[in-house]
Amino acid sequence: MHLVYADDKDNVYDHSELYGVGRSGDDLVELLEDDLIPLPPGATLVGLPNTRAVGMDPKTGKMVPLPGNYHAVGALLPQGYTRYYVPGYSKTDKSQAFPLFGYTAVVWKDGGFYVAAGQTDNPEKWNPENCDRGEVRRGVERLLEKYPDNRLYRHLSNCALGYECLTSSNTFLQRWEGGVPVSFACNAGCFGCISEQPEDSGFVSPQTRLQFKPTVDEVTEIMLEHLRTPESIISFGQGCEGEPSTQAKTIVEAIKRVRAQTSMGYININTNAGLTDHMRAIVDAGLDLMRVSTISALDDHYNAYYRPRGYTLANVEKSLKYATDKGVYTSINYLVFPGVTDREEEIEAMIGFARRTGLKLIQMRNLNIDPEAYLNLIPKAQGEIYGMKTLLEIFREELPDVVIGSYTHIPPVTQSGR
Predict the structure, then answer these.
(1) Residues in domain Radical SAM core (predicted)?
(2) Which of 1, 25, 273, 297 is the most exposed place for a label (fewest CB within 10 A)?
């Protein structure tokens, strides 16, 4: 389990003596055999800028910064895998924030790379290696030719070809879960927003937010093109937009038009669910799936990260419960971070939240953030920190009727059908 590090030209090495370590919150910790799995297909190794690699001397157990101009290395995991630890490192320039990605501890072991993570879902559909870029380009050309006046298809073509976003790529491949962004506005000011950051935030958004208001016709065209198979999903609320429910009128009308023409597939929304009245209208229009983004079921932690405007966590809970009671298959997009999500008080609060709302699915999603900036933002731990692996075990035991996964699922088929 040897330390992995890189030089200033991003050549990657494994150390002959020092062991690799991870971070849980602010603490550097030893990595154990049970914490590690082989580097998954579709994962990417990246250097952590402005850092010094840190390893453990196996003879003394001491944490040792690696001398010389060498920086720490982490892994970016595909969907389907939940990280247990952030890479071990020390910053050489604390004024510089990491790019907004979810970094996972990586080591060299038995002739290969291993990561401190576990598989929490079937990764096949979201493995970048299963997305043929040539097929995506041909899909873009075909749909842009078919709908030359649809601005949304033009916007999504940049997401698919420029950013290689898998959800927008699916829109052009017409498979699985495809995206249909609708909103340029948001009712939250998320600290780690990946589509819009204030100039003085210290972060650079990896994506560009939608800059126009789509028409109902544009939205409906994309939805009808995608909903062609029983298992297809079309989703409002993408990484390149704000909060979709701010455009509830457009969404409601589009859903009604689509469902007047086809019952095929599933209509999903990825949302913060803070605008309860808007969410009720969207549910009543014929929504099938709802995925609510959250980082915590504790108000102080939630508010520190999301910085909600005109709503509270209580509104989120009301929206979820309403949707569940109306037969919508509800889930949360749970933004998780080692040393925070696995705190005793966080676990207890989330179990209560899941029970009260009738959640069907918890999607474990690695939070894309600079670790120190995030830890400085949120409340300090109040109780024991159990570890991410133990957190998953507790959820499975305490919430036996809730699926633990990593991405949107369709509801299980019952004897009476959908």
Answers:
(1) 181-347
(2) 25
